[in-house]
Design goal:
The chain has two domains: 297 residues, 3-Layer(aba) Sandwich (Alkaline Phosphatase, subunit A), CATH 3.40.720.10; 88 residues, Arylsulfatase, C-terminal domain (2-Layer Sandwich), CATH 3.30.1120. By secondary structure, it is of the alpha/beta class. Helix 5 runs parallel beside helix 8. The protein is globular. The termini are far apart. A hairpin with a 6-residue loop joins strand 6 and strand 7. A ten-stranded mixed β-sheet has the order 7-6-5-4-8-1-9-10-2-11, sandwiched between helices. A four-stranded antiparallel β-sheet has the order 13-14-15-16, with helices on one face. Calcium ion binds next to loops.
Length: 474
């Protein structure tokens, strides 16, 4: 077999693309993450198929949609017997490891520990920023213990230590997966003083009033200020202030901590990139940085994710592989989290199992978009109402339009709430309304477009084997 590339798959948790300077961030600088983009490619339309941690991670590992892998919500554990790309890579001679965030099933017992890795150390559940507990693979079974230090530094230390001591006779696949910048945003001492004497620019839609949309937007309980707690703000909440004032005040406190924990991720990724250089690994290693989904950074007045709106749907994805990727390239083809596993297998020279639903985008990274590449994508959020009162929905995004159907039913999914509401549709013309503020579903000017989009939505559902909701009829 010809020399196969190493794979360094860096993933963070809830890092929105618009908080990376290579994506044009107005609010922070990420020089080390930008290095990957500058020396490789930035993908501008990388989307998740369900914008929430555990389901996105299950999709990434298995290359299947959540109705197929069964991980529809945060509470649906992943079946350890499912086929995953790390298992296949390991069987084919790769040395594999995962360090950091895993979050597939609750780790109260050890039954959901990572499978398919020569070594691993993962946080139980969400884990903590300071002095976190880790579960280690252990030579005689998993061991859980507290490790003193800051979580982002520790995950990097474990990863570097493993790289230094790896078996150099075979290629490696390392999943270096950060907890940051997941809520509650607790910076380390090194970055705690950043932004102290400045105001961070506010997003254009911070004071969104949710007019001209389906009722789901106003119902969501993830408004900056209003739905945040003392744990988020690290101080007592002001009393008797207007919602407008509350959003203004809380946005600054929230976004500064969010950016501080990202600064630590950026520093630590820099350490690992330096290590690759020093060890002569840069040429033959595919390096990816992405996040498991996007996040609202005060956009629409929100924090969190879940919605199919752009800030949440879009995953940052930058990739470097000098042998195949032109430095400084940018691509806007639609690539999905379901495509990651096929991509990794493709790089390893392995066939894509029939059950995997994604498609390798290696040709795209090489600058050649296959003529039959997708120009629309299917999305579904299942976790009806739980945590932030976001209604269950599915939809279609094309290059210009987004169609969303809030079927608003938990459908007995574990972790979803058992309440039903009248379904509602939203249609956005992203060319005229990129901020998604004006639902044109009922506008007669879009009647023909709407008919085509609904037909395409149903075609895609059938193609991936998902069932449409009972009231969604032609
Ligand atoms: Ca996440």
């Amino acid at each position: 077999m010809p020399t196969r590339p190493n794979i360094l798959f860096i993933m963070s948790d809830d890092h929105a693309a618009h908080a990376m300077s290579c994506y044009g961030s107005r609010i922070n600088k990420t020089p080390n993450l930008d290095r990957i983009a500058n020396e490789g490619m930035r993908l501008d339309r990388c989307f998740c198929t369900n914008s929430i941690c555990t389901p996105s991670r299950a999709t990434i590992l298995t290359g299947t949609y959540n109705h197929v892998n069964g991980v529809t919500t945060l509470d649906t554990p992943m079946d350890a017997g499912l086929q995953t790309f790390p298992k296949l890579l390991r069987e084919s001679g790769y040395q594999t490891a995962v360090f950091g965030k895993w979050h597939l099933g609750e780790h109260k017992s050890f039954e959901f520990c990572p499978e398919g890795f020569d070594d691993w150390a993962v946080l139980p559940g969400q884990g903590f920023y300071h002095n976190p507990e880790f579960i280690f693979k252990g030579s005689r079974g998993p061991v859980q213990r507290t490790v003193m230090g800051y979580v982002t530094d520790l995950i990097t230390d474990f990863s570097l230590d493993w790289l230094q001591n790896r078996d150099r006779s075979c290629p490696f696949c390392l999943l270096y997966h950060h907890k940051a910048p997941h809520r509650h945003w607790n910076p380390d001492e090194k970055h705690a003083a950043m932004y102290l004497n400045e105001d961070i620019p506010e997003p254009d839609t911070l004071y969104d009033d949710y007019a001209n949309r389906a009722s789901a937007a106003a119902a969501a309980e993830m408004r900056v200020g209003v739905h945040m707690t003392q744990l988020d703000m690290k101080c007592e909440l002001p009393k008797n202030v207007s919602e407008h004032e509350m959003r203004k005040w809380a946005y600054q406190r929230y976004i500064k901590d969010y950016l501080r924990v990202i600064a630590s991720v950026d520093d630590n990724v820099g350490r690992v990139l330096d290590y690759l250089d020093a060890d002569g690994l840069t040429e033959n290693t595919v390096v990816i940085y992405c996040s498991d989904q996007g996040f609202f950074l005060g956009d629409h007045g929100w924090y969190d994710k879940r919605f199919m709106y752009e800030e949440s749907l879009k995953m940052p994805f930058v990739v470097r592989y000098p042998k195949e990727i032109e430095p400084g390239s940018v691509n806007s083809d639609m690539v999905l989290n379901v495509d990651f596993a096929p991509l990794f297998l493709d790089f390893a020279g392995l066939p894509i199992p029939k059950g995997m639903q994604g498609r390798s985008f290696r040709p795209i990274l090489g600058g050649e978009t296959p003529p039959d590449w997708r120009d629309s994508m299917y999305y579904r959020y299942w976790m009806h109402k739980a945590h932030h009162n976001v209604y269950a929905h599915y939809g279609l995004r094309t290059k210009r339009f987004k169609l969303i159907y809030y079927y608003s039913d938990g459908l007995n999914q574990m972790g979803a709430l058992d309440e039903k509401y009248e379904p509602e549709w939203e249609l956005f013309d992203l060319e005229r309304d990129p901020a998604e503020l004006n639902n044109v579903y009922a506008d007669p000017a879009y009647a023909d477009t709407l008919r085509e989009l609904k037909a395409e939505l149903h075609r895609q559902q059938a193609a991936v084997g998902d069932a449409r909701y009972e009231s969604d009829v032609d």
